[in-house]
Structure formats: C-alpha cells, structure tokens
Amino acid sequence: MGSPRTPQLPGRPDLPQRSRQQHLVPELRTETPVFAAGGGETAVHDPGLMAAFRRGISLAEPDA
C-alpha cells in the first residue's frame, strides 16, 4: 500500500501502522470509494460552458 518498510535504527520502535477507515462509522466504511466505483457518469467537455459562465459573471459584475 504505502512505501516499503525501511529498517529502523537500533533502539527505536517501529512507527504505528495505519488502518484504513478505522475512525469512520460503519455506515460510511466501504472497500471502494464512491467516486472510483464508476457511477456511470462521465464528464463531457463543453467548450461553451466556461464561456457562458464568464459571460454571466461579467454581466453580474459592475463595470470597473
């Protein structure tokens, strides 16, 4: 999962190991994150979307 274990210096204890999702309530614990599950939706590139957004912002802003 993370980086490979490196040998510790003599006299120093090993660092604690992380346990996934141990602080989450059971209802929220999943094996696969929701965003990575492939919910069927994919982003579509719309070149006019940003232009429309900028146009709306410029209409809403007072003339400067």
How large is the radius of gyration? 24 Å
Percent strand equals: under 5%
Number of E-state strands: 0
Helix-strand makeup class: mainly alpha
Question: What profile does the largest beta sheet have?
Answer: none
* Range of helix content: 10-25%
Q: Give the mean pLDDT.
A: 76
Task: Please characterize this protein's 3D structure.
It is a single chain. The chain has 1 helix and no strands. The protein has one helix at 47-60. With 64 residues, the protein is an all-alpha fold. Helices cover 22% and strands 0% of the residues.
What's the structural blueprint in terms of helices and strands?
Layout: H1 47-60
Region (Disordered): 1-25
Describe the structure concisely for a colleague.
The model has no long low-confidence stretch (mean pLDDT 76). This protein has one helix and no strands. The protein has one helix at residues 47-60.
Supply database-style keywords.
mainly alpha, elongated
